[in-house]
Amino acid sequence: MTPAILGTRIARLGFRGGVHPAGRKSLAAERPVEVLPTPGEVLIPLLQHLGAPCEPTCKPRDEVALGDVIGQSDKFVSAPVHASISGTVARAAMTTLPNGRHVAALRIKAADAQPLAGRALWDDVYGGPWPTDGLDRHEPSEIVDAARNAGLVGLGGAAFPTHVKLARNDAKPIHALLINGCECEPYLAADDRLMVEAPEPIVAGALLARRATGARRVEICVEDNKPAAVDRLREAVRGTDLGVRVLKTKYPQGGEKQLILAALGAEVPAGGLPLDIGVVVMNVGTAAALARAVLRGKPLTHRIVTVSGAGIREPKNLLVPVGTSYAALLEHCGGLSDHAARVVSGGPMMGFSLTDLRAPVTKGASGVTVLAGAEIQRAAETPCIRCGRCVEVCPVRIVPTKLAQAVRVDYPEWFETYHVTACIECGCCAYACPAGIPLVQLIRIGKIKHAARKS
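and the corresponding structure tokens:
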């Protein structure tokens, strides 16, 4: 138990499987968030969420201001996108996201004068007072509408449209709301710094989310490797009935189903959603963005991104406009070191290797990790020895080696038999495999083949 939180009751529940990779959080966890200077241009994808893509609402040479809607969709499962800087819209473009998907995007050339920069931008996004009293004046439907209009999505990586989660379903009432501050990926510290530097909007957002969903119980969940965040959150929830739940550190604690099992002792059925058992999970960054959307009427245009790893000269946490290139982030952090070997969007367990540093930061991008050559060396792959370690560590209790085998021998019948769609691609199996088999990559291929077979 971390000394700073001795005496704090740590949840004794847990989830099956999981691993304990080296956290390497210290590279960035103690570095306060810096506001990135406004880049010369941003490239904003029209699809950076689960669901339907947006259609542009502006055309080339249009002047747009920070926060203007530039992409919209009438589909329920979607989220509008907004200009993250003031400037002039350039020609429509295509961009490749880190996951390999090609999507339409809008390029905005920055105007000479920006309405917000530096400390003023931080204060507009996270600073100032955040009320915890009187929030019942906001009707649930008003909160849901504000979340949709602000383009809120899950900022922990899944990027599921927030208004869909918040909308009440009389057939499936919500009894518990979990605010997810676990951030279990190695290296990443964006959520940690937000909890330390700006816990107040998180608390306000949690109260508004409870009002929207009707949840009776609200817990802010944090792993015990973030003692400063625990202390700051406990101060911020005083005078409210919100709880701060401290969980033992284990990867992938931040996964929705794993967090529900660890914090509540409840299990989401296979193929089901947290909604099916009356639970909503929301990232701490999303909660803060919800408070800003409802209380200040501001859309989601910026997010905190961790830049870390042994291959970057100056690890930092940055508040950046959505659409900023990864190259701009790396340059602001001193550039790549002589030991840099791989740039990953996200963390090393679930992230995607970047092949083009011009790719833009999206709403769900919480970090970029630059790994050194020594960190990516892997032993030569050998045949599976049937040791069962991948099964032991799998948090969703599937058999990764069988799915990998199905891909390699092209036996698609096993995709359904061994529940390929249940895989959350956490990487625990590949981490534990003594044979060095690229299990996650093979299972991703299996998912694609399975989807194609079903279509």
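(Above: one complete record from the training split.) The two ends are 49 Å apart (CA to CA).
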